[in-house]
Structure formats: structure tokens, C-alpha cells
Amino acid sequence: MSSEVKNSSTMSEKDKILDSKEPEGPLTDKWHSHLDKIKLVAPNNKRKYDIIVVGTGLAGASAAASLAELGYNVKSFCIHDTPRRAHSIAAQGGINAAKNYQNDGDTIYRLFYDTIKGGDFRSRESNTYRLAELSVNIIDQAVAQGVPFAREYGGLLANRSFGGVQVKRTFYARGQTGQQLLLGAYSALMRQVNTGKVEMFPRREMLELVVVDGKARGIVTRNLLTGEIEKHAGHAVVLATGGYGNTFYLSTNAKNSNVTAAWRCYKKGAYFGNPCYVQIHPTCIPQSGHYQSKLTLMSESLRNDGRVWVPKEKGDNRKPTDIPEEERDYYLERKYPSFGNLVPRDVASRNAKLVCDEGRGVGNTGKAVYLDFQTAIERDGIDTIRDKYGNLFEMYERITGEDPYKVPMRIYPAVHYTMGGLWVDYNLMSTIPGLHVLGEANFSDHGANRLGASALMQGLADGYFVIPYTLGDYLAQTELKPVENDHDAFREAANEAADKIDKLLNINGNKTVMEFHQELGAIMWDKVGMARTKEGLQEAIKEIKELKEEFWNNLKLTGEKNTFNKYLEFAGRVADFLELGELMAEDALHREESCGCHFRDEYQTEEGEALRNDDEFSYVAAWEYKGDDKKPELHKENLTFENVKLSQRSYK
Amino acid sequence: MSKDSMKLHLKIWRQEGPNSSGKLVDYDLDNVSPDMSFLEMLDILNEELIKKGERPIEFEHDCREGICGSCSMVVNGIAHGPQKATAVCQLHMRHFNDGDTVYIEPWRAKAFPIVKDLVTDRSAFDRIMQAGGYVSVNTGGTPDANAIPIGKETADEAFDFATCIGCGACVAACPNSSASLFTGAKISQLALLPQGDPERKKRVRAMVEQMDAEGFGDCSNHAECEAVCPKGISIAAIARMRREYLKALF
Fold first, then answer.
1. Is there a catalytic annotation at residue A345?
2. For an engineered disulfide with B63, which of A254, A453, A460, A474 has Cβ 3.0 to 4.6 Å away?
């Protein structure tokens, strides 16, 4: 093993430009020329490496299985009782791939361009192009695993369209595509557990990253059954722990989705990229009461056939079926004739908010718009619609008690996905050598807005087809001395984690975790949500600080630490959300432009669309932790666009 | 939508740990909205318990959309409760009436030991999957996805079996605590697809043997599993598993 690792700590104070380490050469050749030069670990040396993979969603499970197949010893960790429950399982609509099976003119470049444009020109060209290239391999892999994608009568794979796109490139398995792809990756993982190459650690929560000699060498976990604080050493850590949408309390994320693992890495020196880029999905079932614990997404695929509308008049509270055609405003079709109901998510969400703010929202709360299938049912017949969306319609009826075959769905935007995450270079390595970050947990491919059916694509591209190569490259060129889990750094990290748990249990205040989380969520939604202003963000920062202070003085927890204790888990996560919430607001405040999902009221076009400022903000904002009471430091990765022309997005 | 609020009498299984004995404990809960989900009703109860300084009720939950398979409780004697093809997280309180008494218990099966309150250990399912619930392909080098056409009917049927969420309701509902529907669903999915064909004999034997080793009972055709399955998976899966198993023996 050679030791020609680049030393990133020599960066001077004035030079805060981050190096993406993207390969030289034309865009279309970057990944392949990188592979030509990448360092390899010989087959019989791979067994000398222990790799820690945290998280078993699409990115984590595919990475753990693929690395084990290559011969590495993998330790795989998940917070659930089984790796099959990771939140990737809930993705409904589909996965994009530039297969051009429909003969409608799709190419890798077009998928790349749609993704860059959809992200409002705030993503790294080289990563996004690689993602589009790898998309085709994912479908092949999944089919070989026995993933039952939807097919045509002739036996070939079926496709549908998603928002922000004019070709059909989305592969799907009814409304359960995430489930089927995750079970594919899970089955590959189970196969490796059976061979003994993967050791599985379920019901473990990562509480600290352990850094030795500047390199990630292990993690500290809590056994969620026994409360035991455990130390695990390895040669590298792969983090695939998902996004942080639950900062908002109400989101479409699962209840256990959290930022804790990523946040502890941030506090150990990994930069956090673009924390303010949060996707608010336009088609979710609206909130029904204060007790609401989460929001449920209705797949974007519904916008293929559903028409979005509100009454033309304010306060029109007739039943939707009583409102005649000419008194309805199909506002997306009216404002965006070429994309219609299939505009990107940020545009659809913002427009829903606008019509509700005008007083034209529907339902008891006035915070909903209709998604109507009547035209499609009349055109294609009820059976066709049932075949495409049956399980989604049933889910809607179970939750609301209303039948969407007869009355239009009521939908409203909800927090769904976070484009921001730990900053990574082209090799998916964070600013801590040996800490690689995959899937939603990293910031990489979607810029300021993710297109539908691209999250599954990214998670699996990272796990199946990027990390197996780039991790080998790191290991082959890095000198790693033996480190056991009795090293001082492990003891310190374990003590830190244990102290925090004791502290949480000993506050003995009056307010529950849920109450604190709801309050944080309300601040985030009102002031760091769909429309942000300078004043609002400043208020949010102040209010979050106060809430954090109160949390550490007035939290009430019951139960013990040395046993299963769900509310203790939640408390640790909310403590981290409180810190992240502040960073999200800081990031949103500093970005004095609107782009994709980041919409500052001060920066909009005359038509109310996001107004970018490419001269000043065409960069990735990567924040460095400097201490609990200190301002984080901003580093920039300048984005250069050599292959696309920056333009004002138009979906008209 | 009704704005009414209901009062419920709850009888909930409380158990400190795997080796303690448990019992049903009574709780009265007011202000239950018909639009609440069943788990939100338990959230509200837990808030009250924490405020009183008591230990909240532990139950598994995550996606609350009926797809992760975490939630697992027997409501009034029925796994996942009274609504057909619905995981308990998707069950809403509009299916109950003011003044109802509701029994809430964990899955009960030898192969699913109780962890605490309503939480059980379902790791036996992972071990059945490890025994053979996969196609042995490594990452990379796979043929083009359209290289092998699969008829829509076959793909749809395989999908129906593939929708299993691994919740374990089938085991909880079965008088024999059999895992046949869970195991049969995976075997059937892969047996229907050409990708699963090369290993079909080895797979069915390994998975069935593991199922037995975990202490699940045999299937005796009660079909309670199909009745409670939140994804409505048909017991045709079990028939197919048996055919596959018999064929694998010779």
C-alpha cells in the first residue's frame, strides 16, 4: 500500500475553496477514466479490511452487500429490528433510468440535463452525469435479483413519466417501488450474512464517530435492547443514514428517521453541505389535527393522470363534485401549459401554497388543493386507473375515509426529502478521510431540488456502483495502522455518548420530547419552510436557540437507560435536530437568492418564480463545526458548468 | 368527517422484559378523535403516562404508512385489528365507537419472544431469508433488464407475493404459529420468475428447514394468515411452497 494520500488539513485560512477531486477530461469520460486510474485492493488483501456500514436502506444495504461480495469484512448496522425496514421501503413512485426502452429520445445526457436543471443548477456536473450513466446498470441489477417491476403484456418492462421530465423513463412496481428495490438489496445483504462476510448489528443506533490520527476508524453505538454502549473499530466507515426531514416534526419520513449519525460526524469534523435544501413534496395527505404524528405521501406518479385544481372563487365551500368545470382553476395547467400537472416538485408545492394563501384552499383547514382523477377515469376507464394506482387510492381512503374514485383527493405539500447532507467529494468521501457518505445522507447529486424517482436511483448508484470502487481506492493508497476498540479515542467517544444519555434522563422537567419536537417543527415550517425571509430566518434562529436551552432544562423522560426505551432514543435525536435546525436557518439566511426548493421571498422574478444569483451563489455551502457556542465556518465549493448553459428554469 | 371525540377503555399488555411475566393493564382515554390513527391514539396515551411520571407503552412503529412492517399488535383478538388488509398503523379510530373497550396485545408465538410490552423479537424471519430468500447474483455483470421477457400476468403474480412487509401478523394469527405464508410468499415470488429458477430446489429446502428450526409450527390450512395479512397475500403461496418442496425432494 502506498501512502500518497493528499493532506487536506494544509488548507490555509483564506483558501476555503473545497476540492471536489473530480477527474479531468470531458464530462462523458470522467468516470471511466477515473476507473482506469483508480487504485485497487488485491482480492486476497480485501479480507484484511473491516468496513463499517451504518444504515441499511437502499444505499447502505447495496453497499454492504457489494463490498462483502468483493471480499471485505463488513459490519452492517441498523436502528430497526431488521435491515428490511429502512425508510427507503416507503418510496412509492419509481426509479429513473436512461434506458430509452420507450424509444422516446431519452439519453444519458438528457437524464443528466433534466437532473441538473431540476436541481436549479446547484449540483456538481460530474456527479450528476455519473449518476445518469449508472442508472441503466441499476435496473439490470434489480431485475437479476428478482425485483418484479411492472411489465407490458409482451413481457418487456413498463415505464411512466415523472415531474420535470418529457420522456417516460421511470421504472416502477405498482406504488411500492422502494419496497421492491429495498427487498432486492436486503436479499443480497442476507445472502452475504449467510456467507459470513457481513456481520449484522440490528437495533443499534450510532451515537459517535471515532476518529484516530485524523481518519474515521470506528463508531460508538447504543444497543437499543439493552442500552449497552458498544465500540466498533474498522478501517473505514460508510455512512448511509438517510435525510433529516424530521427536523420539521411533521414530514413524510418514518418516525425513526433522524440526523444523529450524520450530525455526530459533523461535530467530529465532517462538513455539512447545503443544509437549507429541503424538498417539500406537493402531493401529501393534509394534516387533520394536532395529534398528527406524520404525513403520508401520495406518489408523484399520480400527477400523470390526476389534475390539480382549486375553486376560482375564494371561500367556495361547495362539494368538489358540485363545482362546475368553468368555476375550477386548474392552475398548473393554466400557468405551465407545456409541463402542466407534471412541473417539478418545488414549483408544484409553491403554487399550492400560493392558491391556499389566496384563500382558495379546500377542506376543513383551507390548507389543501384537489387532485382529481375524473378526467382520467372517463378517458381510460376505472380498471386502468385501479391497475396503476389501486394501492395508493386504498391508502388514501384508509387515512381520510374518502373514496378518490368518486371525490377528488385533497393534497397539500409536506417535507419529504433533504438534498443537503454531509459534503462529499467525487469519491463520496467526506472531509474526514475514511468517512464515506452515501444516499440521502450526502449532499451530492440533486442540487437545490430533487426530481421524482431520483432518490432510489442515487441511493443504489452510490451503494452498488460507486463505493465498491472508490473505497478500494482510499484503502489502497492510505496507510492505516492497526486500531482496536480499546484505543483512547473509543473510550472518550463512548463516555461522551453515555454522558449525554445520563444528562437527558436526569433533567426531570415538565415537557415531553414530542412537545419539544412539535415546537421545533412549527418554527421550521413557518420560518424555514416553503417561503423564507431574512426577518423570519433571524427569528427562527433566536427561537430555536431558546427552545434548545429550554430542552436541556425542562425535558421530561421516564424509564431507564439499560432497556428498550423509545422516548430516550427520540430525546437524543431531538437534541440533534435542535442544533441542525439552527444550522439550516443560518444556511438559508446566508443564501441571498432563491433556487429550487430554497425560496426567499426577497428574491423572485416578476412571475413569482425562484430568482437565482449565479454570480454570487453558484457554490455549495459546506459548514464546518467550530464548537457549540461558536458560529460554524463557511467553506465553498464553486460550481462550474461546462456542459450545460445556466438558464432561468422554465416549465411553461 | 366527524368532529366528535370518543372515550375508550383500553386493556394493554404490559411486560417489563423477555423473562418477566406480563399482564393486561387498564387505561381510560378521553378525547380520541375519529380521524386519529390507532398509533396516534397510543401516542396520546403515552404523553399522559410520561406527564404522570409513568413508563410509556413500548410498541414498534416507523413508517406509519403500512409498508415497513414494524407495527405489530393484536387488537381485540385480531392481528392488526378489525380492518381488512390494513396494518395497525393505518387503522383509524373512526372504526371504533365511543365507550368501546379495546384489548391491545403483542404478537404471541414461541418463535417471536416478547422484548417489552408490545414489542417482539422477529429476527427469525431474517434467518429464514438468510437461508435462501435471494437470487445468488453479485453486483455487476448482469444482463440487460429486457433480455428475458416475463409476461405481465406472471410479473403481476410474482409482485403480489413480493409485497410481504415481514410484519409477522400471519404467525400471530395462526393457531399453530406457522410462518408458512411469510416463507411461501418469498418462495413463490422467486419460483415464478426466471431469475429464481436455477436455485429453486435448493432455496425451498433451505428456507423450509430454517422455518422449522426456528420453532414455527406447521400449516394446517386455517387460512387465518391470509385473513389478517395487511397486503392480502393469498395462501396460494403456501400451496406453491408445498409443491416446490415436494418437487425439490426428488
1. yes
2. A254
**Any bridge partners for residue A328, and if so which?**
A311
Facing residue for A141 by CB, picked from B86, B136, B139: B139
In DSSP terms, which residues pair with A371 in a beta bridge? A308, A409
Contact A424, A443 (CB under 8 A): yes
Distance CA B42, CA A312 (A): 41
**Which residues does residue A442 pair with via DSSP β-bridges, in sequence order?**
A422
Of these residues, A217, A345, A573, A649, which one is catalytic? A345
In this structure, the number of other CB atoms found within 10 A of the CB of residue A500 comes to 16
Three-state secondary-structure class, residue A584: helix
The residues spanned by each domain of chain A are 280-415, 488-630
- Strand A198-201's sheet: what is its strand order? A198-201, A73-77, A50-54, A236-239, A435-437
Q: Which CATH class is domain A488-630?
A: mainly alpha
Which phi and psi (to 5°) does residue A394 adopt? -65, -40
At residue A495, the 3 state secondary structure works out as helix
Per-residue pLDDT of chain B (250 residues; tens, 9 = 90+): 345 789 999 999 999 999 999 999 999 999 999 999 999 999 999 999 999 999 999 999 999 999 999 999 999 999 999 999 999 999 999 999 999 999 999 999 999 999 999 999 999 999 999 999 999 999 999 999 999 999 999 999 999 999 999 999 999 999 999 999 999 999 999 999 999 999 999 999 999 999 999 999 999 999 999 999 999 999 999 999 999 999 999 8
* All domains of chain B in start order, with CATH: 6-105 (3.10.20.30), 123-249 (1.10.1060.10)
- Residue A533 class from Cβ within 10 Å (0-12 exposed, 13-18 middle, 19+ buried)? middle
Around Cβ B101, how many Cβ atoms within 10 Å?
Answer: 11
Residues 13-72, chain B, touching A (beta carbon < 8 A): 16-17, 33, 35-37, 39-40, 43-44, 46-47, 49-51, 53-56, 58, 60-70
ipTM score assigned to the predicted complex: 0.98
The beta-carbon neighbor of A148 closest among B44, B68, B155 is B155
Instruction: Let me know: does A269 contact A431? Beta carbons within 8 Å.
Output: yes
Half-sphere exposure of A112 (CA within 13 A, CB side): 20
> Residue A418 and residue A257: Cα distance in Å, rounded?
12
Residue B74 parent element (H or E): strand B74-75
Tell me the C-alpha distance between B65 and B42, whole Å: 16
What distance in Å separates the CA atoms of residue A283 and residue A278, rounded to the nearest whole number? 15
Give the Cα separation of A277 and A448 in Å (integer): 6
Helix (H, G, I), strand (E, B) or coil at A553: helix
Of B58, B116, B189, the CB nearest to A148: B189
CA A597 to chain centroid: 13
- A566 contact residues in B (CB cutoff 8 A): 56, 58
Which are the contacts of A2, defined by CB distance < 8 A and separation ≥ 6? A39, A476, A477
Instruction: Assess contact for B63 and A87: CB atoms under 8 A.
Output: yes
The residue behind cell 437565482 is A612
- Cβ A58 vs Cβ A88: under 8 Å: yes
Four-way CATH pick for A280-415: 3.40.50.1980, 3.30.70.330, 3.40.50.10540, 3.90.700.10: 3.90.700.10
Contacts of B22 in chain A (CB under 8 A): none
The three cell numbers locating residue A500 = 449525554
Looking at the complex, report in whole angstroms how far the Cα of residue A180 sits from the nearest Cα belonging to chain B. 7
Q: Which of B112, B110, B129, B132 is nearest to B121 (CA)?
A: B112
